[in-house]
């Protein structure tokens, strides 16, 4: 893979990296025919973001010939090292004229070259790790509600919340009014926390297609990261959401790039009380129908596939093996990670799950997995 | 018990939030006392809090366009609330370009001071933000704990230098000692001093000036007839002083109108305290009545 980015687009790339760095510790790079895709997922797998830069975004974009038939190269790098290249956005804007990104699988190096003013060239050689495809399974079409607003409106709305606040609740009130309010965990003493609520009128939005009374609770940190990017690029942001507990999808659309942020949302307090231990791998069996409903309603399926379209059967998100054990997923263990879900330790986010389509020759654990949720038609 | 107030004027709002910010930096929790024409932020001197007390008195007419309150009883027409000033400060921080700010006492999940901010928006309707700040209502039997500090009977009163300078000096001294000696005299000289077995460090400030009002008042007898050169000294906990200096919101200068001055009173032995008084003269806005001064008294107990 070889691509050249010039002018203001370098800064756009830099901002995208900043925004992704709010999500995960590793950056997944995937050159596709539709452009270069940068992705990240958080350690608890409750947040996933992807930035797809279309070939038009680049001055030059060569995906490179696949080294082996049918297999395209994907890799991940440490977010910290990639971010350090784009750390200072003002200096990026002032000094960098051209940015060259080269993926050299043979040399095991990802090369990022910044061509700066006065003939200075900065070359960064990053070590990478080959990896499977990282893809959250979600569909905006399945979301019953959507909201679209200029990023500035939303950015001005979230400044009212303290930087330390972790979750906000977005709800649709009567008359198309949208409210944002800080989520207060029940355990905390209610008399100790300041509650902030903000109401936005319908006419501040470009599009409001929500059912009154619906509400979702999601993490603010990742959303803020996306907002910073969206505000700088002056793009409208669309929020797609469904019932509480199902993922909310935040999208930015531009001819040059497509941005998706998928965040797990807090499930309904009632459904939580029904199955209080429903996170992690060590859960107790609950009534089957109840449970299945529950599952379908809250999962973000994440899939990793070694082959792009390599298998005839569609990749099916599967439910994790119910083995007692630590509930935390370890991102490094992509290979053995048969859908071990992780949830943020103290939160009630029903996170996710991601199936693995294994290579035919590989150790096959798939048959033992129980499919509980249908595959949603992915957008990729 | 009822309370509601409204601020429309941006300058008043800005000023009010500066006062609240200053209090928030000084105290984690404080008492808000409301009377018909004044409001007070009070941090009473408790040993657990490290012997720092704050008394800040504001005339409601200088800030609010509407101010209605009804106390517990006609003869005790006051309200005492315990609140975290940081919350109020945060609520006001994002209200800097508000059309109106309303502050109300409400009873939601618990007693709350509700700050409702009306903000301009890009569309025709304005944005409404409400902050419900939990408060505790202080019963009447405890009201006596919050009494106005008496007129300081001090030996020396002096203007403080630019607090940033003072802060950087004290910051370095903190690494060497736990307590600091502040010395000052009536000819504008102040020394900050630490003394340990290994080292003694003194920083000298001069030409600071002494506030003129100090000698007018009859009560401040100790300052009268005092040798201009002789130093009055007080020993205080260096961390508490630093906390104060680090939290400074207002940048005191003595020259400009509508700015703050900080003034130090090295009190005499009887009081065992050093008092720092921030005061400001508000710009004479048309709607403001009377002498519009805001005074914040911060007292640190001496004798570590």
From TrEMBL, chain A:
Start-end of Polar residues biased regions: 269-280
Entry-linked InterPro entries: DNA_clamp_sf, Rad9, Rad9/Ddc1
Region (Disordered): 269-290, 306-347
Pfam families: Rad9
Family that this chain belongs to: Belongs to the rad9 family.
Protein's name in the database: Cell cycle checkpoint control protein
Originating species: Apteryx mantelli (North Island brown kiwi)
Phylogenetic classification of the source organism: Eukaryota, Metazoa, Chordata, Craniata, Vertebrata
Gene from which this protein is expressed: RAD9A
From TrEMBL, chain B:
Family matches, as Gene3D superfamilies: 3.70.10.10
Statement: the UniProt record of this protein carries the keyword rRNA processing: no
Domain of life: Eukaryota
InterPro entries the record matches: DNA_clamp_sf, HUS1, HUS1/Mec3
Keywords from the UniProt entry: Nucleus
Pfam family, one: Hus1
Compartments in which it is found: Nucleus
Family recorded in the similarity comment: Belongs to the HUS1 family.
PANTHER family recorded: CHECKPOINT PROTEIN (PTHR12900:SF0), MITOTIC AND DNA DAMAGE CHECKPOINT PROTEIN HUS1 (PTHR12900)
Record protein name field: Checkpoint protein
UniProt organism field: Apteryx mantelli
């Amino acid at each position: 893979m070889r691509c050249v980015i010039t002018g203001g687009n370098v800064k756009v790339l830099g901002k995208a990296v900043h925004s992704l760095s709010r999500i995960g510790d590793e950056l997944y790079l995937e050159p596709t025919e539709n452009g270069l895709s940068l992705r990240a997922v958080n350690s608890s797998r409750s947040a996933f973001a992807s930035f797809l830069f279309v070939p038009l975004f680049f001055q030059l974009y060569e995906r490179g010939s696949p080294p082996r038939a049918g297999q395209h190269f994907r890799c991940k790098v440490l977010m910290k090292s990639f971010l350090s290249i784009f750390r200072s956005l003002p200096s990026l804007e002032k000094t960098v004229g051209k940015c060259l990104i080269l993926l050299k699988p043979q040399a095991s190096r990802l090369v990022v070259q910044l061509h700066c003013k006065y003939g200075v060239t900065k070359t960064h050689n990053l070590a990478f790790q080959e990896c499977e495809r990282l893809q959250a399974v979600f569909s905006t079409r399945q979301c019953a509600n959507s909201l679209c607003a200029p990023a500035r409106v939303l950015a001005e709305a979230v400044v009212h919340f303290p930087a330390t606040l972790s979750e906000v609740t977005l709800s649709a009130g009567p008359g198309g009014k949208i409210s944002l309010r800080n989520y207060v965990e029940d355990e905390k003493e209610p008399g100790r926390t300041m509650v902030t609520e903000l109401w936005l009128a319908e006419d501040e939005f470009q599009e409001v297609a929500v059912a009154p009374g619906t509400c979702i609770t999601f993490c603010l940190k990742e959303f803020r990261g996306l907002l910073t990017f969206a505000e700088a690029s002056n793009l409208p942001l669309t929020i797609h959401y469904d019932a509480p507990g199902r993922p909310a999808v935040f999208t930015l659309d531009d001819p040059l790039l497509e941005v998706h942020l998928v965040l797990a949302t807090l499930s309904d307090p009632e459904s939580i009380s029904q199955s209080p231990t429903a996170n992690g791998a060590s859960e107790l069996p609950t009534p089957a129908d109840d449970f299945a409903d529950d599952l379908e309603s809250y999962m973000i399926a994440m899939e990793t596939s070694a082959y792009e379209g390599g298998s005839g059967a569609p990749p099916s998100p599967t439910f994790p093996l119910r083995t007692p054990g630590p509930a935390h997923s370890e991102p490094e263990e992509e290979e053995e990670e048969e859908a071990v879900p992780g949830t943020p330790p103290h939160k009630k986010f029903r996170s996710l799950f991601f199936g693995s389509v294994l290579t035919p020759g590989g150790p096959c654990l798939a048959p033992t997995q129980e499919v509980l949720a249908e595959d949603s038609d992915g957008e990729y | 018990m009822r309370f509601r107030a409204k601020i429309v004027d941006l300058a008043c709002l800005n000023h009010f939030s500066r006062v609240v910010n200053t209090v928030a930096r000084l105290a984690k929790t404080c008492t808000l006392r409301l009377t018909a024409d004044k409001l007070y932020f009070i941090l009473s001197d408790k040993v657990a809090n490290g012997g720092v007390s704050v008394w800040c008195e504001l005339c409601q007419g200088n800030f609010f366009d509407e101010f209605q309150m009804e106390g517990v009883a006609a003869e005790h027409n006051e309200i005492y609330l315990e609140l975290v000033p940081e919350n109020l400060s945060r609520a006001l921080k994002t209200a800097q370009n508000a059309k109106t700010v309303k502050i109300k006492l409400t009873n939601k999940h618990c007693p709350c001071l509700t700050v409702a901010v009306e903000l301009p928006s890009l569309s025709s309707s304005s944005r409404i933000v409400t902050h419900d700040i939990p408060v505790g209502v202080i019963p009447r039997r405890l009201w006596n704990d919050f009494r106005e500090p008496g007129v300081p009977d001090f030996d020396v009163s002096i203007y403080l230098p630019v607090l940033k300078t003072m802060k950087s000096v004290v910051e370095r001294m903190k690494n060497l000692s736990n307590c600091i000696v502040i010395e000052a005299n009536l000819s504008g000289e102040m020394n900050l001093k630490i003394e340990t077995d290994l080292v003694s460090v003194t920083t000298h400030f001069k030409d600071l000036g002494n506030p003129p009002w100090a000698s007018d008042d009859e009560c401040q007898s100790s300052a009268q007839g005092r040798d201009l050169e002789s130093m009055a000294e007080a020993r205080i906990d260096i961390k508490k002083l630093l906390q104060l200096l680090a939290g400074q919101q207002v940048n005191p200068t003595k020259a400009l109108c509508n700015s703050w001055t900080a003034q130090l009173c090295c009190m005499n032995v009887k009081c065992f305290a050093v008092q720092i008084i921030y005061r400001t003269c508000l710009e004479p806005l048309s709607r403001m009545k009377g002498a519009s001064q805001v005074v914040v008294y911060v007292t640190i107990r001496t004798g570590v």
